[in-house]
Each structure stands twice: as C-alpha cells, then as structure tokens.
C-alpha cells in the first residue's frame, strides 16, 4: 500500500483468515495495522494486491454490511441515548422502527448494557461507552468484526474485564474478529492467531498460533503457556526490529 505522498505503508502482507477465528494484528506504532484494517473495510483502496472477504471485494462486503467496525474512540453522539446510538446505523439504512429497536436491544443485551439503554453517553464510563460502540458495530449482525485498538485508551483493569467480555461475545456469536493492538498480553489472551508486523514498510513477520484452551479466564494470564506465548510474540517483534511495544 503506497499513499499519495509516497509513504509505503504495507508490503508483503499475505494473510488468510478462516471463519470464527480471532486474529490480532500486533506491531509498533506506524507499522500499518490500521492501514490493513482500513483496506479490509474499504475505507481506503489498495495500490496493489487483492483482498477478498468471503469471496467478495471489500466494496461489495461493505455494501452487503458483511462487517462491523469499532474505532479507537467510541465516537458516540452525546445527544442521543445509548439505545438511539445503537439504532443509528439501522436508521440510516431505513430499517423499520420496531425492528431497529428490537435489534438494538438485542445487541445491548449482548454487551451487558440493556439496563443503560436510556442513559446518555456522558453518563457512562469509558469502558461502557466502548461497549456501546461494539453493540453499534453489531447492529446489522455481521459475521465479521474489525476492531482498531478499541481498549487502548482504557485503564488496565477495565481493559482486562472487557477482554473477557469480548471473548464471551465471540464464543456466543461465532463471529470472526480482526483486532488491532500493540499490547502483547492483550493479543495473547484474546487471539486464536497473532499476526506480528514489522515497522514501515509494514510486513507480516510471523503468524503465531495461540493454543491456550478455551474458554479463557483471569487465571489464563497466570499460566506458564501464557508467558511462553508472550515471549514468542516479543521475540518475533524484536526480530522484526519492533520497539515501543506496550507491556
Ligand atoms: P499503525 O496502525 O500500525 O500505527 P498506520 O496504519 O496508522 O500504523 O500507519 C502506517 C504508516 O502509514 C505510518 O507511517 C503512517 O504515517 C502512514 N500513513 C497512514 N495513513 C496515511 C495517509 N493517509 N497518507 C500518508 N501516510 C499515511
């Protein structure tokens, strides 16, 4: 991927993701993680190479609402209630009122926020706001979820709780998730495979399968295997001259 200013953001990025996987993209800042996600989501177009999403082009996948996208910040509308925020994409696509409400309520229940439907975003903590944005991304019930460092701005304890919540949601729904992070423990805890990327021009350095048993719990982080995998990721990052990686 070459940007108009000549920046080569991605090179040799070959990856195949199977349905139901939880894939993390990890690498130092500026290595092209967000660029890769934006390419998948048809927010930008590749200058070379090819992307298929369930056999479709990213544009076709976007138009058929095959995926949801969760941004780094929750980007909720302050003047709308939680429920109205989750209903917004359905409203834009012209879904009938009762269906909008039913779907939004179901998604809020999935992220454990059904009791907060009538609250406004400013009444919620940062972690809860990010859960609302996950519910909104799920409004069309897509099979695929792209998440760009959704928990990066949260404190460690909230982040660990949301990691558990997200895994529960992933297990219950069978979604395929592509998740960007620069935290090694987060990647190891969440993923079925970790894609380690190198600094610019971003390349896929190594893909590390994570064989930690499911369902994962708080104790998972204290197992020997967890530390072994974290070490493997750290070494792969170092091999690709990675640096500035959050612990
Ligand atoms: P990451 O998500 O891994 O931190 P990004 O994908 O955001 O990295 O960026 C990869 C590289 O591409 C960075 O060097 C960034 O400055 C550059 N880049 C991103 N978007 C643009 C753009 N629209 N125009 C020019 N360069 C860009």
TrEMBL record:
UniProt GO molecular function = ATP binding; ATP hydrolysis activity
> Residues in domain ABC transporter?
1-224
Q: Does the keyword ATP-binding apply?
A: yes
Whether RNA-binding counts among this entry's keywords is: no
Q: Which InterPro entries match?
A: AAA+_ATPase (IPR003593), ABC_transporter-like_ATP-bd (IPR003439), ABC_transporter-like_CS (IPR017871), ABC_transporter_ATP-bind (IPR050166), P-loop_NTPase (IPR027417)
What the entry lists under SUPFAM superfamilies is as follows: P-loop containing nucleoside triphosphate hydrolases (SSF52540)
Pfam families recorded for this chain?
A: ABC_tran
Q: Which domain of life is it from?
A: Bacteria
This protein's UniProt keywords: ATP-binding, Hydrolase, Nucleotide-binding, Transport
Q: Which PROSITE patterns does this one have?
A: ABC_TRANSPORTER_1 (PS00211), ABC_TRANSPORTER_2 (PS50893)
Q: What is its EC number?
A: 3.6.3.36
- Name this polypeptide is given: Taurine import ATP-binding protein TauB
Task: Name its species.
Answer: Meiothermus luteus
Q: Gene encoding this chain?
A: tauB_1
